[in-house]
Amino acid sequence: MTVGRAFLFGFAVLFLGAEAVMAQDVKEFVDHTPMLMDHGDGHMMDMEGGMVMGQNKDKLPGGCDKISQDAEMTVRAGHKYSKSFPGTMYAFDQQEWRFKPCTRLTVHFINEDNVRHQWMMHGLPKYLYDKGMFHLEITGPAKISGTLILPNDDKTFLVHCDIAQHMEKGMKGQLVVGKGSANMPSIPGLTAQVIPDDYGPGATAPTFQPSPAPATASSQSRLSGMLIIGLAIGIFGMPFLMRVLQTRFKDMTVKDFLGYTGNVLRRGLNLSVQFISWLAQWINNKRNKYLPQK
């Protein structure tokens, strides 16, 4: 074998080997959409882990005279898309989508992991979408598609995976209709985290501060009862009190009023002193009663 043939043979082996490796990385995504069974009210599912909830292809939301446009988009979900966001485990391949109001939108959801993922959109009008949401779910690697009609409002909608801890680990985004409203917090790579992670030097674990115990039903009922009684006494007793005061202080001069007030205060003070003396004597007697006799 000449040097030239040996080189060509080696190159062919390397090429075929690289092609075989790349072929192993290519996943075949089974499309579950044709296998879905219609359970009514936009709810469809199959026996292989595929589900569409809230599908709506023809019912217009309030304020939409017609479909403004037909649009499609493909959303990919998987662990590999989280690598751009430290501290996360799962993510969508995009974190924001924008469309005009009254758009009829078909979402093709591709799950690239060997676990279950969802693409769930919240805040939709409940008269069209049960529970106010549109929901795609699939156990992957697989693909599923569903259609909804976006409202006429300028609003920003939360989109996330509702599988336990998937949203907390990064799988969420926002869909903006028209001009949108306020951005959703803690969208990876898009908005600031509500509670930012801090792994720098000197970082300490957050301390737990227990919240005050909520008032019990019995204490709340006692409080409300006392409030009602106090209001009743104040409302119905005020006229009587005013008549008594008017009768007692009628035709009094300022000097007489001050003298009367001083006498009342002195009597109150004397009664307080007498009560404190009696209480001290009573405590002393009780203490002597239980002390050992010498």
Could you outline the blueprint of secondary structure elements for this entry?
Layout (H helix, E strand, L loop, with lengths): L2 H23 L4 E2 L5 E2 L5 E2 L5 E3 L15 E10 L12 E2 L3 E4 L3 E9 L4 E7 L10 E7 L2 E8 L5 E6 L11 E6 L39 H32 L5 H37 L4
Parallel strand pairs: 1-11, 5-8, 7-13
Antiparallel strand pairs: 2-3, 3-4, 4-10, 5-6, 8-11, 9-10, 9-12, 12-13
Annotation field: number of helices:
3
The value of Rg in angstroms is 38 Å
What is the mean pLDDT?
Answer: 80
What spatial order of strands do you see in the largest sheet?
2-3-4-10-9-12-13-7
Order of helices and strands: HEEEEEEEEEEEEEHH
By helix and strand content, what is the structural category?
alpha+beta
Q: Work out the strand percent.
A: 15-25%
- Ends: how far apart? 125 Å
How many beta-strand segments? 13
Instruction: Identify the CATH class of the largest domain.
Output: Mainly Beta
Describe the structure.
- The protein has 294 residues and is α+β, with helices and mostly antiparallel strands.
- It is 31% helix and 23% strand.
- The longest helix is centred in the C-terminal third of the chain and has 37 residues, at 254-290.
- Residues 20-26 have low confidence and may be disordered.
Summarize this structure as a short list of keywords or feature phrases.
Immunoglobulin-like; alpha+beta; 294 residues; 13 strands; eight-stranded mixed β-sheet; single chain
Task: Kindly summarize this structure in a few lines.
The protein has 294 residues and is an alpha+beta fold. It has helices at residues 3-25, 217-248, 254-290; strands at 30-31, 37-38, 44-45, 51-53, 69-78, 91-92, 96-99, 103-111, 116-122, 133-139, 142-149, 155-160, 172-177.
